[in-house]
Amino acid sequence: MASEWRQANVGEIAATARNALVGGPFGSNLVSRDYSDVGVPVIRGQNMGGRWVRGEWAFVTEEKADSLRANLAYPGDIVFTQRGTLGQVSMVPPDGYERYVISQSQMKLTVEPTVADPLFIYYVFSGSEHQQYIRQNAIQTGVPHINLGILRETPLSLPPPYQQRAIAHILGTLDDKIELNRRMNETLEGKARALFKSWFVDFDPVRAKMDGRWQRGESLPGLPADLYDLFPDRLVESELGEMPEGWGLSELGALARQKRETAKPDEIDGGTPYIGLGHMPQRSIALGDWDIGDGVGSNKYRFARGDILFGKLRPYFHKVGVAPIGGVCSTDIVVIEPGEANVRHFVLSWVSSDLFVAYTNAGSTGTRMPRTSWKYMAEHRRALPTDPRPLAGRFGDVVSPAVERIVSGIHEIRSLAELRDTLLPKLISGELRLPDAEQIVEQAT
Length: 445
Fold this sequence. Notes:
By secondary structure, the protein is α+β, with helices and mostly antiparallel strands. It has helices at about 10-15, 60-65, 120-125, 130-135, 150, 160-200, 205-210, 345-350, 355-360, 375-380, 390-430, 435-445, and strands at about 5-10, 20-25, 40-45, 60, 70-75, 80, 90, 100, 105-110, 155-160, 235-240, 240-245, 250, 255-260, 260-265, 275, 290, 300-305, 310, 320, 325-330, 335-340, 380-385.
């Protein structure tokens, strides 16, 4: 380790201002009934797990936040999970809300900037050494947890501030690229969802023809000219409401089937990718997380790249996505295979739509752990042409570049994350020289 590095602890890098190192509100000072639709966001465990706190927010009123001023976090602060998923650490972003309330299960640290760089400290606590330290020093009575005293005494090895900033910049460059890919995936998925809703829920192409806004030989945004004859020019009433004239009600099972290729534990190679429900994000078709099948103890289903995975346990969690690799998955996941390759993206948009997920939830069975089934899923109906394949295929042609870009973005994110995780311990320990790390990152990005 470089001679200019020094030893310290978290308490020594905390800002001198009051409430620089604090926990969340005590007990009844913040309960669920305090939450409101707008106001000051509350940082909870579900908002942790990445560089920045983010996700679905619960809020409290401005007045409630004022009463909890000792428990507020601001841009640049570092937030730690106190109980629950130990080791979680995130930062308050510079471009979010002006202030946040930390929940009872979190702690926050305001770093003294002349002593330590907050982003560098975040990366230190993201590394395996400090993750292990937190787990080993957790209080095991009841729910495993840490407290302010444990956090305050956590040891740190600190290079000079200019080196801290350089290390944080190198690792941050990789995280910036990862975040850019994630946002691009979200944008692409949003456009695909919007197009599916426009064509098959709101019937905008039909309405455009009815209103005279779409003429033969013309293209509109999201409507190539060659699609003109695939849409009628009238809407008629049906048992499900308005639908295009000449269309009928088609079941999902007419275009897709369940793949039930069982893999026994002794048949699964240790390096086979494994996807469980816990790996699947909510409301995102980008399945970027998986483990390997080494040590699985029960039967699984096999899936191929491009298959559609649908979480049938508690379907209201809306866990649906496209497989970016082949592998095995939990039997609580339905593997869906389109009957024909050219309707794959149409089926993906159908089963990942809000309407379909609500349908599966309404028909799920079981009280504590409700499940849907492929039999019930396959019976879902929607308005489609008598032969839906030509239009479904053209929809796939339009959205397939977006879906393929999402899949390639997943692999790029994983490669960048792997590089970041490889560089992180070497940089924060001084093992790797900064110029060498900069060159590696430059080549990767």
